[in-house]
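This is your field. Have a critical look at both lines of this record:
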Amino acid sequence: MSGPAQAPKPQQNQRLTVNVADLRRRLGQRRVLEIDLRLPPLQVVASRSTEDPVTGSLTIESIERGVTLRGSVKFNWEGECRRCLDAVNGSSEVDVMEIFQVGAAADSDEISVLEEDTVDLVPIVRDAVLVGLPLAPLCDGDCIGPDPDRYPTGSGESERPSQKKPDPRWDALSELKLD
């Protein structure tokens, strides 16, 4: 006897292809796709995606000589606070917009080539997650870091104007009368 089915482990070469031949028969035809995809963890500087699934809703719509893909994806991330290095986590939602056309220039940055009436969503979702990862996350907007007296951050208690002493090299300027 076997137990309940387990979700397969994510693989580097996982594919999620969508056949769009039926959509391309009529301009303006749409299909909504619900995404629930496990990707290998991705990292940017001090944050990385978790192993939780990436979810979202994408709409594929036929256009002349191709299709557009619009929607958003949501994912969880974790990392270290850029000031105090404590663990921090959160979630992000990123908008997705792609255009696929038959005969598009292979070196185009704005339009992807549509081959064999299929669209692979994994690279698009992967790129969206990479773009959505915070480069320098904060545990709290008021985080003053591990040593605020020695390394002031510009926020928090140690940087209040009443506590900050002026640089003594500028003392002579306070004696000027500009009336």
